[in-house]
UniProtKB/TrEMBL annotation:
This is Aldehyde dehydrogenase. GO terms for cellular component: cytoplasm. PROSITE patterns: ALDEHYDE_DEHYDR_CYS, ALDEHYDE_DEHYDR_GLU. Pfam families: Aldedh (PF00171). GO terms for molecular function: aldehyde dehydrogenase (NAD+) activity. The keyword Transport does not apply.
Amino acid sequence: MHPTVKLQKSWFKEGHTKSYAFRKEQLLKMKKMLTTFEKPILNALKFDMNKSEYEAYASEIAFLKSEIDHHVKQLKTWMQPTKVKTPLTHTGSKNFIRKEPYGTVLVIAPWNYPVQLALAPVIGAIAAGNTVIIKPSELTPTVSWVLKKMIEQYFPPHFIAVIEGDKEVTQKLLEQPLDYIFFTGSVPVGKIIMEKASKQLIPVTLELGGKSPTIVHKDANIDLAAKRIVWGKFTNAGQTCIAPDYLYVHHEVKADLIRAMKKYIQQFYGENPLDNEEYTKIVNQTHFERVSAYLDSGTVVVGGSLDESKHKIAPTILDQVSWEDQVMKDEIFGPVLPVLTYHALDEAIDKINSRPKPLALYYFGENEVEQQRILNSISFGGGCINDTLYHIINPHLPFGGVGESGMGSYHGKRSFDTFTHEKSITKQTTRFDQNFRYPGSQLGMAVL
Ligand code: NAD
């Protein structure tokens, strides 16, 4: 067994993580850790991804602190056993659900929000009373190093440990007798994780990706839609799992929408975004080349400039794109936004339904009947009406995919629930017995 797994499993068995006091103390410690390490985290995010301080603080540190606050506030209630009703057949007994931790959890993280996506699951896992091993992404090595240093300074390895490395390291960990695996990453790797986990029947949560459509109908507030789409798409240079992947626009409003998006791109990132010090870069050369190749699809109508030495690609809008172009086959995961058009909403619904179920979907339009039609007829992980990304920062909304975009969910109470086994108990009375269940009782057979 891997020494860290062995250490954590035997320490878990001793029961240290079970009490409310311990769990609360660890959550508060994690919040303190984020404050102490704020500068190194921001510097590492700048170094690995050129994330601006504002964007990095809001999307990584502030997000985590608010998750911790929510957990600390609710933890006592969430931990309570839940009483359930006692049916007639169970008269005299008490029936309840106990909340218990799984044990040792492995959290595998991607590189795009490398701090948030490594630690947000940990908050739920430790609130639920588990021990945790974090495997950060090797594509953001400075962040991975800072994560290791800060966890080592604040938590003992028998409780929380960081194991750095690439896919070989991850694959070795997947052979360990873990109690839960929480994976965030791509669809192909998600399939590998599930296959490996199935060998030992380890439960998994898979937070995956895919192509998230953004529909703009003819009755949308075009200017506001453009502003919110530009923000949602080009934040983190499009390297966001729930970023609008492509635009699907009613043909009558396409020209106005593109014009308005061009205005907001200039307003947010300046005339030359490549020189904007605050604009995030593409994570590495491989991804830079992958995303740059999408500029060969359709016609560039906004942006299109590149700086290979800085790994930067300007916010780009592509028109005249077809469903057969490569940019419409892969998850883009970069600052390139293809625009496709439809004539009738049913056509858009049918097209989206013919593809894998997306992680997110955004619909812009004022008519409530049409909003409901979208919600009723397309299956997707989560999303917004008249906005982008905003659903992810409400701790009362579970976050996760469906179909190819993932399974399971987290954030807020759903994080606690994800890492909690619900143990159902019937506590029977010995004061009397009901004979109907026993052989020979006609009534018993009828009741059961
Ligand atoms: P990835 O799947 O390449 O890597 C994720 C993690 O898996 C990394 O820690 C990596 O080391 C490990 N890994 C890679 N190959 C492996 C293998 N063969 N065996 C075992 N482990 C392996 O994903 P990425 O490039 O880091 O992240 C981008 C993807 O993640 C996108 O598809 C994006 O949509 C998705 N994502 C999803 C969410 C979400 O919450 N649903 C959030 C962020 C990113």
